[in-house]
Amino acid sequence: MDATKKEIIEKIDVIEKFMDELKTLMPKIFLALIIFLVGYIIARETKNIFKKVMKKKGADITVVSFFSQVLFSAIIIGFVIVALGELGMQSSSFVTIIGAIGVAIGLALQNNLSNFASGIIILMFKPFKSGDFIEIQGGVTGTVYNINAMNTSLDTVDNKRIYVPNSLLTSSYVVNYSQNDERIMVINTKITYESDHNLAMKIIREILQDCEYVKNTKPILCEISDLNIHCVNIISKSSIDTNDYLPAYYQVMKSIKDEFDKHNIKFAHSNNIATVSNS
User: Fold this and answer.
1) CA-CA distance, 216 to 115, in Å (whole number)?
2) Which end of the chain, N or C, is surrounded by fewer C-beta atoms within 10 Å?
3) Greatest CA span in the chain, whole angstroms?
4) Are 207 and 234 contacting, i.e. CB atoms less than 8 angstroms apart?
5) Over the chain, what HEC string results?
6) Is 126 left (phi over 0), alpha (psi -120 to 50) or beta?
7) Mean pLDDT throughout 28-37?
């Protein structure tokens, strides 16, 4: 009985000491919360001001979004260190702990760190930006929707969203079809030996000259590029504004088919009838 009473008294003493310490720490806890709240407000407003200033200067929206988030996180971490200092934790100890945690996380997340570093490289050197139409390893194509810290998202022509690790984009080839204002549309049209190749070349040239998307200020090429056992290959090259490439391609291909049918020019049956090179 005495032992039980003694345990109860000890527990009561522990609770009383805890309450006394809590009363002593309450002002510090309250101050730490205020510091954190003020830090959050400052970080948020700084982030918004940074975005507005950079947008007025015409900075790329992807770069602005990325670095504004980094700035926000850095300010928050700074105020967290100050708030913990008010609670009695030494800032040097806190930095040491953060450093140790950082090393451990770095070893565990090497691939993610590689993606993060690659994201910074992409934003700095800008091989592509939001809105560009690109092709990546494996022949995957799509319009860049967003560049995040870890991955880049693409919207495909059939409206699927693909998330590609940034490290893949910096370690393999990327074809940017939107980089230049103009593209060269290269069409290879295969016809039979029995068909009139001179007439076919004349038709293709006239189609390209009449196409509203083709820049007639630039030379149009239309010549025989190959003679093999299956067919005669006629190659044509014309300059197109990058934004008009697909409408031009669809219009020219339909016109070639329509005109060849009218003039009894036969397509060869080996491989592809007509192909377009993504130049």
Assistant:
1) 44
2) N
3) 117
4) no
5) CHHHHHHHHHHHHHHHHHHHHHHHHHHHHHHHHHHHHHHHHHHHHHHHHHHHHHHHCCCCHHHHHHHHHHHHHHHHHHHHHHHHHHCCCCHHHHHHHHHHHHHHHHHHCHHHHHHHHHHHHHHHHCCCCCCCEEEECCCEEEEEEEECCCEEEEECCCCCEEEEEHHHHHHCCEEECCCCCEEEEEEEEEECCCCCHHHHHHHHHHHHHHCCCECCCCCCEEEEEEECCCCEEEEEEEEEEHHHHHHHHHHHHHHHHHHHHHCCCCECCCCCCEEEEEC
6) left
7) 81
More confident residue, 4 or 114: 114
The residues, any chain, with a CB within 8 Å of residue 149's CB and separated by 6 or more, are: 66, 69, 115, 116, 119, 166
Q: How far apart are CA 133 and CA 250, in angstroms?
A: 18
CB 187, CB 274: distance < 8 Å: yes
Structural domains present in the chain = 2-108 (1.10.287.1260), 128-176 (2.30.30.60), 182-278 (3.30.70.100)
Structure-block tokens of residue 207: 């189609």
CA distances from 201 to 57, 165, 195, 213, 232 (A): 50, 46, 11, 19, 11
List pLDDT tens digits, range 39-97: 888 888 888 888 888 777 776 676 677 777 778 888 888 888 777 777 766 656 556 66
What global pTM score does this model have?
Answer: 0.61
Task: Dig out the tokens for 191 from the structure.
Answer: 């016809």
pLDDT in tens, 196-210: 999 999 999 999 999
